[in-house]
Amino acid sequence: MSQIRDNRLTSEEEYRNIFSAASDGMVIYDIGLDSVVEANPAACAMHRYTRNEFIGLNPAVFMLPENHALFREQARSAEPGVFEASIVHLRKDGSAFHVEVRRSMMMFRDRPCLLSIIRDVSQRVQTERNLDLRVESQMRELATLLAISHTLASTLDFQPGLILEQLREIIEYAHCGLFVFEDSTLVTLAMRGNPQLDLAPSLRIHLQETETQGMLFKGHKPIRIAEVWGDHPQARSLRALLDDGASALIQGMHSWMWVPLAVKGRMIGEVGVAHEKRNFFTPHHADLALSVANQAAITIVNTELNRQAQALAVLEERQKLARNLHDAINQSLFSAGLIAEVLPRLWERDQAEARRSLEDLRKLTRGAMAEMRALLAELRPSTLIDAELGDLLGLLANAFTGRTNVPVKVTVVGQGALPADVQVAIYRVCQEALNNVARHAAASSVEIHLNHNEKAIEVIIRDNGLGFDPEQITSGHYGLSMMRERAEGVGAQLSITSRPGHGTELTIRWMPGRMNGVQSKEYE
């Protein structure tokens, strides 16, 4: 019997040693007494109580109210099993810390109790929060970069002020400026952050010293200056550079960052960023700013290319107009002038011949007027959208006849508005088809049929010219490739039927949603 008693005492001593040595906190709570009846050293240290202070405490002292309510509910139920939760405990000084707790029912000193095993996870929770904040910050930065990229990609109108405003969402700054190079001068396109600088005229910073230019251009990488007023060579170069009427950029500032605007090694400009704190800008700030600057530089170049393309397009359009005036209208008016010059003498000699010449004069002037109207339509693109397709085809027909003296009969059945892109595409296809007839067909007559109905819009251009073998036509000949691309671009079908000696028939068909009522009209 004494052996059994000795074994039990040895077992209790072993359990007490384990209880005392555990790194996790262990607390025994007596359900009937509603207080702590035992706690190991780890639990006492965790809550910053001595053992004597901890024993006898009501759990409400070291738990938040909402956590204590759940604890009391579990204690009242007294059901076997294990309860696990992540909650907040309070230290003796009232400070909170996060714990993971595991509770189970037990008998202690022949009384029903709860054993709580407590692990301090405050450091892990703080690490997770810091990670969440970092992820949130990175997501915000990526969203801002995406917004900037979308803004720059969706327009060819560069908005430097908007770029600086969006940059401020990911990099805090006191003020910021976007500069472009003009010869050996930095010129501000926009300033943000300082109301006086925002409203001031463009600053012009002259780059005269080779050393200063080398500082800005070297490596095409961001330059961070930790102390603007320090003795570092970059700080001295910055002060010397901004001394020429731009010193307001660094007044009251301590940190500065130059970010290059460059595309394929070509320096376009710089972004200058300032802050009041010393050593404020980090390498991460430099990477973010460089991402924005690279996109801005590409947009600046694209804007320049777009302006050049627009100027070239205007020049080409003027040249095209000049060619058309020379090839068609000028020649018609020249011929009409010759007829008008000889007409009085011809009338006196042969009135029948004179009347035929008068008819020729009428055709020439009518053709010149038709060509002029067609050119005016080209100069006013809205005409191609606002006018009815039948009227536009009549305009093309009259211009063609005036240019070639070949009659064209235009028949229009039905009417209805077309989407702008569809109408322009059909007009261009018909225009190219008539140009092909004039250049290659040697036709004596041409017919154009436009048919509107509820199911489709169909245009047929038919000539009685030389025709050709479609199987023998090389790619791009007669402008067929261009016409097919225009038709396919608006979802229309283009078909061409021809054979040598039997003329050519071109059909373009588009399926609209709904058309208006039907009526007929002809152009002679």
Report on this structure.
The strands form three sheets. This protein has a six-stranded antiparallel sheet. Strands 15-16-14-13-12-17 form a six-stranded mixed sheet, covered by helices on one side. The chain has a five-stranded antiparallel sheet with strand order 2-1-5-4-3, sandwiched between helices. Residues 1-9 and 514-524 have low confidence and may be disordered. α5 packs parallel to α10 (283-349). The protein is α+β, with helices and mostly antiparallel strands and 524 residues long. The chain starts with a helix and ends with a strand. 28% of the residues are buried. The chain is built from 15 helices and 17 strands.
- Low-pLDDT runs: 1-9, 514-524
Main beta sheet, described?
Answer: 6 strands, antiparallel
Mean pLDDT value: 81
Structural class: alpha+beta
Keywords:
524 residues, alpha+beta, six-stranded antiparallel sheet, six-stranded mixed sheet, disordered N terminus
Topology diagram in text:
Layout lengths: L1 H20 L3 E6 L4 E5 L1 H7 L3 H4 L10 H13 L4 E9 L5 E13 L2 E10 L1 H32 L6 H8 L7 E8 L2 E8 L2 H5 L4 E3 L3 H8 L5 E3 L7 H10 L12 E9 L2 E10 L7 H67 L1 H29 L1 H6 L2 H16 L3 E6 L6 H22 L4 E7 L4 E7 L16 H10 L3 E6 L5 E7 L9 E4 L1
Parallel strand pairs: 12-13
Antiparallel strand pairs: 1-2, 1-5, 3-4, 4-5, 6-7, 6-11, 7-8, 9-10, 10-11, 12-17, 13-14, 14-16, 15-16
